Amino acid sequence: MNSIWNKNLELFEKRFPSLYKRLSSSIKDFSPGEYTVEAAKNGELTATLSNTNQNNTRLHSSYNPGREAETAVLKGVSKDSENLIFFGAGLGYSLLAAAKNFPSKTLLYIEKSPSRFLEMLWYSDLSSVLAIEKCIFAVGAETQDVSPLFSPCTYENTVLFENPAFTFDNKDYFDSIKTALRSSQNRHQINENTKKRFGKLWIRNGLKNLQKNCDLPGVCTYLNAAKDLDLPFVVIAAGPSLETVLPFIKEIKEKAVCVCVDTALSALLKAGVEPDFIVLTDPQYWAYRHISGLSSASSVLITESSVYPSVFRFNSRKTVLCSSLFPWGQYFENIFGTKGPLGSGGSVASSAFNFCVMAGAREISFAGMDLSFSKNQTHIKGSTFEQAVFTSNQKNRTGENATCRTIFSADVTTKSDYNQNPVLTDSRMKMFAWWFEKRIDEIKNNQKTAGFSKNTLSIKTLTPQSMIVRGIEKGSLEDFLSSHKDASLLKEKFFSCETRESFSIWDKDLFKKEKERFFRLIDKKDESIKEILEYTNLL
Prior knowledge:
The protein is of the alpha/beta class.
């Protein structure tokens, strides 16, 4: 028997028992044959791919494969590199080089073909790799299962090794994995750029609104309030396709809880409907402009303590806070209790979706979340965004020109909508789509772990003109309206949860004392609030 094979299998089973179990049938039936293996000039093994359409698809050097792999690894890794990602590895020389030179870093090996992974175990002693504390093997995994592994990856701390010889005949698979990696890295980059750009604004708003954290109830008031109710939720965004839904919006509100993003509020009010909830979490002044001058007296406004201060003067039935996205808000929540996290996916629609999930919704539909320039528009006609564009018209800078610049100045690509028609989109909106895909995978995996049936949460779009997002199924407005009855009584039961809102309102006297202490810590630049000081130093 092959002693290297047996040694690797024993270590592999101890290190990755779940993956070993999943590959057990492949291991049992394995026999080498993927690679044609021979001795290199220096006596090490080298390999070429067997049964390929390309001639001489050599995986490694025919002279000194180990040294050449090590040279490539050493050249690629910098002092800031923390995550080393390998798309395939052939006989594993690059993994061995990484284990030898960088044993404290994270090694992530991704391979679509189990047989190629097993071929590596057959020929190469990987004991040094399997001994690495932060070693991760993803073999035969789907893109959505690999994506969460990229959460700590930024452009600065990650190196990708992608030898075309290892990936060319599984190119689509590795392209999808690379897209997921870049999306994660883009998210980190956007967060960092946003912090630099809006850091002062967040601080200024957050400190002005600090008392609101004490005075206002949290969105956690609605936690699981719809869990046992057959009550659908509809997230209403301001994409151009919302026009197809507006004529039926009154009927939708009768049958569902309407959760409206700030940019869509103007369009809904013009259609004669006040939504059940309005979500506004962006701290910029321009986000406030979406609701400025408007009134929705029967709605609940969900907002965050670092928004533009005038947001808190909006005329609504009630204002509730979600948990702060910033360290000074989190400082107080750690002492007095959470307001209810809604996360951040880059768009207010992601916060609206998370609210529906928090509330315990079993059916969530989207309307107007196009994530594309459908109809060559950016937003529905009549939205605050569109009106702002056209009220700033100049002779040589018309609203139409501004819209064209928005659409065509970015890295625009073509995707498909749910009707298989082409739509234009860009990297920013693809990032939002990726967030929804990742979040939906997470929710369904959590439900599966908790013993729920796979289809417990139904997520659909009522506007099939939107770009396809994996995890969001195609629905239709007609089916939605015909399959749901008037939900007035169910909504009354849902809103009865507001009687418990007092548990998320903080004690005013204790908050006053802690607030005074908080500012003293800032003045002293106390090390205990280091993260907060990193923001306040932007002032």
